[in-house]
Amino acid sequence: MDAFRMIKTSRKLATKCLFYKVSSISLYLYVFLILVISKHSEGQLSNFLGDVENEINKLTSKTLQLYRDRCSESLVECSSAFEKNGFACSTSDIQGEDSLCRTDHGTAFLTAQPGCSQCTNRRLNEELSLVRTASSHCTCKDLLSADICWTKGLEDDLKRTSLPGLLWQQISTTNGFTRLYPGTAQETCYSYDPRLRSWFVAASTGPKDVVIVVDSSASMDLVPKSSTKNMSLMQLAMQAVTHVLSTLTFMDYVAVTKFSTESEQVTVNEVFTLIQATRENISALTTEVNKIQPSGHTNFEQAFRLAFNILDRSTSIGRTTGCSKAILFLTDGSPTRGESDPTRLAQIVGDLNTRQDGSKIASIFTYSISDIAETEISKHIACSANGIWSQVETDSAASLQEQISQYFEFYSTLHKGPSSVIWTEPYLDAFGADMVVTAAKAVYDNSNTSHSKLVAVVSIDISYEHIQQLESDKAVVREELRRHQDFCPEIAVYSQCELEVLRQKIYANGAINYQSDPKKICDQSSTCPLPSDESCPNRTFQYEQCTAHTSATRDYQDAACCGMFLPCPSSNVPSVGLSPILTAVFTCLLLAVVTFLL
Predict the structure, then answer these.
(1) What is the predicted pLDDT for the residue at 99?
(2) Beta strands of 134-285 (E only): which ranges?
(3) Where are the beta strands (DSSP E) in 420-485?
(4) Long-range CB contacts (< 8 A, 24+ apart) of 370-375?
(5) Of 178, 157, 164, nearest to 59 (Cα)?
(6) What's the confidence (pLDDT) of residue 594?
(7) How distant is the alpha carbon of residue 340 from its chain centre?
(8) Is there a cis peptide before residue 529, judged by omega within 30 degrees of 0?
(9) Using CA atoms in the order 342, 347, 350, 355, what is the torsion angle rounded to 10 degrees?
(10) How do beta strands 208-215 and 253-259 pair?
(11) What pLDDT, on the 0 to 100 scale, is given for residue 434?
């Protein structure tokens, strides 16, 4: 009997040991599989980003080829091709049999409008790309008409691009033109300027350190008579600062300072250096900027000393891109405290801006706000630093935003060598497709000049929901996006003529013009020729139907709603890729099977 009990007890102990062994093996296997799946997920994201970059590179190569051939005989039929373009303010190309009602490209904004009650999705045309222009004032300009013509050759390439999570593809030129695929109606006609979007700016300038210096003296409380919106100079300046902040990406670093009698940094969480321009930091910094109240006198010297001190402190602790640095200086007048002599003040700024090896630390851009502002000192500082000065109109906030964008042009004009793909953080899509991540690459032509000419920016928008299926950890996603664009573009040595031409550039109502204005020239002996308004020598791209597109008035309210023309189908194209829930279920089933086999 005792022997029998001993045998039974031994079997129980053996069974227990076996159970614990199996459980231990299962636990180790579970941990191992989780690590493998996690590593595979990271690899999936990296591989996917690489696939998007490959598609971007293909599109940029074709874009450059078409641009270089724009004046060739191969485009002799360009006039007829121009007329075949669909404008996003016209509805005919959305209503056709080729249009589809889709759920994966966002919801129509104006679903409360009559006819939209049947559908909360969006009508798209996957057979056509549609054309957008930044303004009706520039739609029929020769340069933009030529862009519409030669980019038509990209349509087949856009349709061939196949990526999971793909939402939009855009070809956007420096003339304010956008070709968007798939075709969708414009939310409000002539309301979208690609040149002011963060992905366009980032692709054409690369990572950068930016210090924005804002005059907050008492005179900024003035409401100029020329202002049609009854806004003070301070309000206009803050809108301009907010705009610049919105064009930055998480690859940039930024600081904002205000100056009156003394200078003070506008901080987030009491950080007195440059901060990374993440969406969270930009939102917090924008909130603080809007709290600035005008008071006191005007001290230019203290303002520049603080700006360079911030750049120096940030560099010493590695809080910098290590790439281009810019100081944007906004004021309505001249100094009433500190150094006020233009020559001596420019010398002080020059000394602050010079490294021990004689190289310049930052490019300086000065802006005199209002037509009654004193301009001599601001202009002298910019000219002495080989920067750009502008006198900004105050009839609207838009003019200030457009004029301040000259600092983007400075870097894109002086770009040298190849460009790289940039990535944005997730942000809310301007076309209503919820949260997206954008990959973009600048297209430069260096065939005829010593410096590259920015032609266009090619961009691809990916649904952030799809990105999350590959990697749910936001910090991991951000780091992977950063890793894919860790570069500094090469900036060429500029010539005085290039700078003088940039100083003559005028932005107004979405259109670009060049104006021979002696007030804006630093070197009065300069005889630099301004660019021509024609795209090709002895040839025009002005076509009969151009004005018909300009006068189109039917917009998104009629065209984008699925229910207006055709009923929505009961089923839609499913998105590609496993959801996190399905992935978890699959993992649990796999573990159960492995455990059972053991």
Answers:
(1) 72
(2) 166-173, 177-181, 208-215, 253-259, 263-266, 275-276
(3) 422-423, 427-428, 435-445, 453-463
(4) 370/222, 370/224, 370/226, 370/233, 370/332, 370/394, 371/224, 371/226, 372/224, 373/331, 373/332, 373/333, 374/333, 374/334, 375/519
(5) 157
(6) 41
(7) 38
(8) no
(9) -170
(10) parallel
(11) 84
- Would you say the C-alpha torsion 570, 574, 575, 581 has a positive or negative sign? positive
- List, for residues 526-537, the tens digit of each pLDDT value: 778 887 767 777
pLDDT at 328: 95
Q: Which residues of the chain have pLDDT under 70?
A: 1-42, 73-83, 90-98, 107-121, 138-139, 187, 226-229, 393-402, 448-451, 508-510, 533, 538-598
Both tokens assigned to 52:
């998007």
Alpha-carbon distance 136 to 329, whole Å? 31
Residue-level pLDDT at 217: 95
Q: How far apart are the first and last CA of the chain?
A: 34
User: What is the CA angle 526-530-533, rounded to 5?
Assistant: 170
241 — alpha (psi -120 to 50), left (phi > 0) or beta?
alpha
Supply the pLDDT for residue 538: 67
Give the contacts of 52 (CB within 8 A, at least 6 positions apart): 163, 421, 439, 460, 462
Percent composition of the chain: helix, strand, coil (DSSP 3-state, to 5): 40, 20, 40
Structure tokens at 252: 């940039």
With CA atoms as reference, report the closest residue to 533 among 167, 144, 23: 144
User: Which residues, in sequence order, are bridge partners of residue 215?
Assistant: 259
What structural domains does the chain harbor?
45-187+418-492+547-598 (no CATH), 199-404 (3.40.50.410)
The CA distance from 180 to 155, in Å, is 10
Q: What is the DSSP string of 285-306?
A: HHHHHTT----S---HHHHHHH
Can you tell me whether residue 193 is helix, strand or coil? Answer: coil
Q: For strand 435-445 and strand 427-428, is the pairing parallel, antiparallel, or unpaired? A: antiparallel
Q: What's the whole-model pTM score?
A: 0.82
Considering only CA atoms, which of 165, 166, 176 is closest in space to residue 200?
A: 176
Q: How far apart are CA 501 and CA 528, in angstroms?
A: 7
How far, in Å, CA of 320 to CA of 303, rounded? 20
Tokens 């874009």 — which residue? 63
Q: What would the two tokens of residue 292 be?
A: 């600035």
* Helix pair 2-68, 474-483: axis angle to 10 deg: 40
What pLDDT, on the 0 to 100 scale, is given for residue 29?
A: 47
Hey, what long-range contacts does 193-197 have (CB within 8 A, 24 or more apart)? Answer: 193/134, 193/135, 193/510, 194/134, 194/170, 194/457, 195/134, 195/405, 195/408, 196/243, 196/247, 196/401, 196/402, 196/405, 197/172, 197/247, 197/430
DSSP element (H, E) containing 389 = strand 388-392
Q: What is the pLDDT of residue 505?
A: 79
